[in-house]
Write the structure tokens for this entry.
Amino acid sequence: MSSEITVAKVIEKLPSRFEPDAAKDLTVIYQFLLEDESDFYIEIDNQECSTFPGEHPDPSITLLMDADTFIQVVTGQQDGMSAFLKGQLRAEGNVMLATKLGKLFKKKS
């Protein structure tokens, strides 16, 4: 990708990179609270993925970080566990769902 990667572009591409087979029997809301960007959430239900702006009233897990950390983790430049251990990423709610997130999306389309 030659153009600059932004949070908005990542959010736009998430549904096309979704792996429905990895989401069998999974109904979950991943809330992303970004310190320096707009918040959004991912809803996964019936092996379908949708993204929405703002905050969900009852997310399954909330991931808090800045936009740079989000982009580095999504693009594979940084491992999510590494970001967590360095204090760049916090998780609230069902934190075990964070470990499934990487398996739900293809790295490249």
